[in-house]
Design goal:
Elements (H helix, E strand, L loop, with lengths): L4 E3 L6 E3 L8 H13 L2 E6 L3 E6 L6 E4 L2 H21 L23 H13 L5 H12 L3 H23 L1
Antiparallel strand pairs: 1-2, 3-4, 4-5
Length: 167
């Protein structure tokens, strides 16, 4: 949707009013609730302060000078994108927090490796090979919570190292 700018007769300041029309209030409310449940990724940026995006909708971005402003701007951008999807009859992505698995990986195995893993999965009581391999990988990383903490720690180290390079 295109933004619409209005010029005030008293000031020469350009005011961006966002959309050229308002969303239906019920759609906007639903979109705002869904946007609030999405996980955000914020990254520091030397030029603008912070850049934010939704984990569920990685192509929707916003930026702002502070982390708090970036969170607000990113949520607003997500709300607009979700409301647009709802108006078009499309289904927005399910929030990551609901645990719906949407990503898939492909692992190549020999026939013998597959038989060994399938047998191990059955003996361990798993429904299938995917559940077994997911559990084994997460267990290797120390469980889902530990894996998230490890990834977060690695991201913090990267952010710190970026800061040292730019200083």
């Amino acid at each position: 949707m295109s933004g619409k700018c209005n010029r005030s007769s008293r000031k020469s300041k350009v005011v961006n009013t966002g959309l050229d029309r308002a969303f239906d209030p019920a759609i906007e409310k639903r979109a705002r609730q869904l946007a609030q449940s999405y996980r955000l990724v914020l990254e520091p940026d030397a030029d603008v302060g912070f850049i934010g995006r939704g984990l569920e909708m990685p192509t929707i971005f916003a930026d702002a000078p502070t982390a708090d402003e970036c969170v607000s701007a990113t949520r607003e951008a997500l709300t607009t994108a979700i409301a647009t999807m709802l108006e078009m009859g499309l289904r927005p992505p399910t929030p990551v927090a609901k645990g719906a698995r949407q990503a898939q990986i492909n692992v190549r195995l020999t026939s013998e490796e597959k038989l060994i893993l399938e047998d191990s999965a059955r003996r361990a009581g798993f429904r299938g090979l995917s559940d077994f391999m997911r559990a084994a990988a997460l267990n290797y990383l120390g469980g889902p919570v530990s894996a998230k903490k490890r990834v977060a720690s690695q991201l913090r180290k990267r952010v710190k190292s970026r800061g040292k390079k730019s200083a």
